Amino acid sequence: MGSLSTGSADVEGTSSGAMSERVGVTPTTVPSDLVPDDTDTRRLRFPTADGLSLEGEVTLPEAPGPGHEAIEGAVVLAHPHPLHGGSMASLVTSELFRVLPLHGLAVLRFNFRGVGASEGDHGHGADERLDVEAAIDTLAGLTAARPLVLCGWSFGADVSLTVTAERLAGWALIAAPLRIRPAADYEPVGADPRPKLLIVPEHDEFRTPASAAEATAHWANTTVETVSGADHFLVGRTDVAARLVASFVASRA
């Protein structure tokens, strides 16, 4: 198991075979399936601006060659609520981490502060903005692949909506409650001309498609996509969310 240092991230190798458009709890954590053998998956640690060390994993598709796609983009994944069992191994985050590399995308997932082996304490969605910014900087330092898109699920989506990093080509937001932070915290991203995709389960318990469309009606360049038949946890519908994210990244290339 080899290790390397790229920028400020400490990476450890692991072996493994426009116009706006409107529109009782299932399990939330599962271990991620192994990624395919034609990807390079590594554990890593990286620092935040306020001095914490976070744990994460990154998957980099192999360089172009026979039977391989080029790295066509990059995605940072932000997981659901830490105080409700959320981690980088949560269901939707794990499925995206498994599937997106099949589309030629470099993907980084990480644990927010206070989760797993990440240092620090829960920051109620405010301090976690620094975690996301650090993850973006880390992935950008590991691959020059563009576009780079920020993708969060639930709590991770709301935190993502407070991050305006210049490197980002857009935001893909899955089942965003739009209530973890005050509405004013989302306004800089809402007003940003870069594209935003809200992926909203049809039967979301915390923010319905109609409510999401209403809450973001004044946002710039925002599209709301409904996942038919899904609830907030997207059990049995994670493949739909993954396809929508992959298509969104491809549209930014």
Q: Which helices and strands occur, and which strands form pairs?
A:
Elements: E1 3-6, E2 9-13, E3 39-47, E4 53-61, E5 73-78, H1 91-99, E6 105-110, H2 128-142, E7 148-153, H3 155-160, E8 170-174, H4 183-191, E9 196-201, H5 209-215, E10 222-227, H6 238-251
Parallel strand pairs: 5-6, 5-7, 7-8, 8-9, 9-10
Antiparallel strand pairs: 1-2, 2-3, 3-4, 4-6
Helix pairs in contact: 1-6
Features:
25% strand, 24% helix, 253 residues, 10-stranded mixed sheet, disordered N terminus, globular, Rossmann fold
Tell me what you see in this structure:
- With 253 residues, this protein is an alpha/beta fold.
- The protein has one domain: 3-Layer(aba) Sandwich (Rossmann fold), CATH 3.40.50.1820.
- It is 24% helix and 25% strand.
- It has 6 helices and 10 strands; from the N terminus they run E-E-E-E-E-H-E-H-E-H-E-H-E-H-E-H.
- The protein has a 10-stranded mixed β-sheet with strand order 1-2-3-4-6-5-7-8-9-10, with helices on both faces.
- Strand 9, helix 5 and strand 10 form a beta-alpha-beta unit.
- Helix 1 crosses helix 6.
- The longest helix is centred in the middle third of the chain and has 15 residues.
- The protein is globular.
- The N terminus is likely disordered.
